[in-house]
Amino acid sequence: MPCPLCSHDKTYKHGKTSKGSQRYRCPNCKQTFTDTFDTIYYRRQVSQEEVRIVLQSHCEGTSLRGISRISGLSYNTGVSLIRAASQKAQLVHNGEVSSVDTDAIAADEMWSFVKKQKHCLPEELEAGDCWIALSLAQLNGLILSGRVGKRTDKLAIELVTSTQGKTDCQEWHTDGWSGYERVLCTDDEVEHYISKILTQRLERTNGSLRQQTGRWHRRQNKFGKVWEQTKVTLRLVISYFNWIWVHSRLGTTAAQRADLTSQPWTWQDIATYSTLC
Ligand SMILES: [Zn+2]
């Protein structure tokens, strides 16, 4: 197999690992590696099916304890897989979502709540009201950006800036939250429309995000306990909705409709997404 670091194509077998996997060595850069190097399987004894169950269940809103019971994997293994996959999902988003063609950008926020925990230092945990802001390409339903935070101008600025890196479109449709008005009016090229009707498609996406992510359901008692975990989940869910989730009526993923890929991705594509070379 080619070297995952320098792409040199003549690598040699180099003994076995303590778990019995084949090890390789690259004569060019001297790196040793196994065939799971640079995937979330590296140094984890989990199968492809176990990874699929953990990640899919997490995106459907199953609790972390529930995932442990369903998969038979330990709680810590589940959490560590989700964190590793979330990092991959972020890299997929950074690397694959660009120059998105759309006639308009829709932005909306979902309210969530991060439970206050005792025995935590203030700097270790952000608690209380928590907003998840999303921007969507209206033409194809692709999520351009998602941010977690308090409902402040900082959240609006982060969402607008990260969205502008993904598309040249300058037409924004938002709800009446004044944060968008203050942020978007500083850019002369932006056209900004405020309406409940224009953000309908996003609200539908939010609806299905909410349906499938139990922890974000309003009025449910499955609040995320840790702010950082909400960010981890959001990164994973965004890539799930863009690349894996097939729209039941259209029969395609948002990434297909945005011409970023020719077919639906699987969890395996995210788990093994190359971050090297
Ligand atoms: Zn190499």
TrEMBL record:
The keyword Transcription regulation does not apply. It comes from the Bacteria. It holds the Pfam family DDE_Tnp_IS1. Keywords: DNA recombination, Transposition. InterPro entries: InsA_N_dom_Znf, Transposase_27, Transposase_27_IS1. Residues 3-30 form the InsA N-terminal zinc ribbon domain. One of its GO terms (molecular function) is DNA binding. One of its GO terms (biological process) is DNA transposition. Belongs to the transposase 27 family. Absolutely required for transposition of IS1. This is IS1 family transposase. The lineage of its organism: Bacteria, Bacillati, Cyanobacteriota, Cyanophyceae, Nostocales.
